[in-house]
Design a protein that fits this description.
244 residues; alpha/beta; Rossmann fold; seven-stranded mixed β-sheet; binds S-adenosylmethionine; methyltransferase; rRNA (guanine) methyltransferase activity; RNA_methyltr_RlmE; SAM-dependent_MTases_sf; rRNA processing
Length: 244
């Protein structure tokens, strides 16, 4: 919980910004609703609104929740099925949720996750936001690519993905690359995602990792794609082979 006494260590302009953020936060409709419904964060509404539109998860499915802390997405999904949740930060226990604390870029953590098959992969992961749009965009692009790599091992054929990203110089390339692995692929900005925020969500339905296998069997397949996509595919195949 934010404490006003922290303001004394900030500059006057930072104090004003922090105080404005705090006042907006406590007056926010979704913050009030999350408190009323005992959800751990307003982020829960983003997933609920995406699910309402795209029917991402169904009852009794097994869901991987990447970047789960404080746990509101896991709370929402665990009402219907089982969840494996990962975060750098601790998540206090939730029924039907197995939590692993660690970095998804860590090979040991990846290997732990790789033992499982999921119907749905969710990623609300974000780097510590610096305020530098392009740096934050690059940071989340790296997390997005790791979430896709993990999906190639763990997401069932025809499974679904929801992944947070930020707009930035490579967003179109990211979109064109990630969509290759899904029958349907969308950009979505749910109502509860603040308009001033650069976040948006990729929604993928009908996953297939066939493309990676095809490239492994015949690298010629790469050459039908534009150069930047070829490079992304080459890197993904290199990472994929490291785990074989
Ligand atoms: C926006 S929060 C997630 C909120 C969560 N979906 C919820 O509903 O409560 C983003 C989370 O991503 C986590 N994260 C960022 N990088 C990560 C990484 N490399 N491995 C695991 N978690 C990461 C952060 O620790 C942070 O808790």
């Amino acid at each position: 919980m934010f404490k006003f006494r922290n303001l004394y260590s900030l500059s006057v302009s930072s104090q004003k910004k922090t105080k404005r953020w705090y006042m907006e936060h406590i007056n926010d409709f979704y913050v009030k609703e999350s408190k009323r419904l005992q959800l751990r964060s307003r982020a829960a509404f983003k997933l609920m609104q995406i699910n309402e539109k795209y029917a991402i998860y169904k009852p009794n499915q097994y869901v991987l929740d990447l970047g789960a802390a404080p746990g509101s997405w896991s709370q929402v999904v665990s009402e219907k099925g089982k969840v494996m949740a990962i975060d750098l930060l601790e998540v206090s226990p939730i029924q039907n949720v197995k939590f692993i604390q660690g970095d998804i870029m860590d090979k040991q953590i990846m290997n732990q996750i790789r033992q499982h098959k999921f119907d749905v992969v969710l990623s609300d992961m974000a780097p510590n936001v610096s305020g530098e749009h392009e740096a934050d965009h690059q940071g989340i692009t790296a997390l997005n690519q790791t979430a896709l790599l993990l999906s190639t091992f763990t997401l069932k054929t025809n499974g679904n993905l929801v992944m947070k990203t930020f707009v930035g110089s490579e967003e179109k390339l990211n979109y064109d690359f990630f969509r290759l692995f899904f029958k349907e692929f969308y950009r979505e900005k749910p109502l509860s995602s603040k308009q001033e925020s650069s976040e948006l969500f990729y929604v993928g339905k009908g996953f297939s990792s066939d493309l990676i296998r095809e490239i492994l069997e015949n690298t010629e397949k790469l050459y039908k794609y534009p150069e930047q996509i070829q490079n992304r595919l080459k890197n993904l195949v290199i990472d994929y082979k490291m785990f074989e």
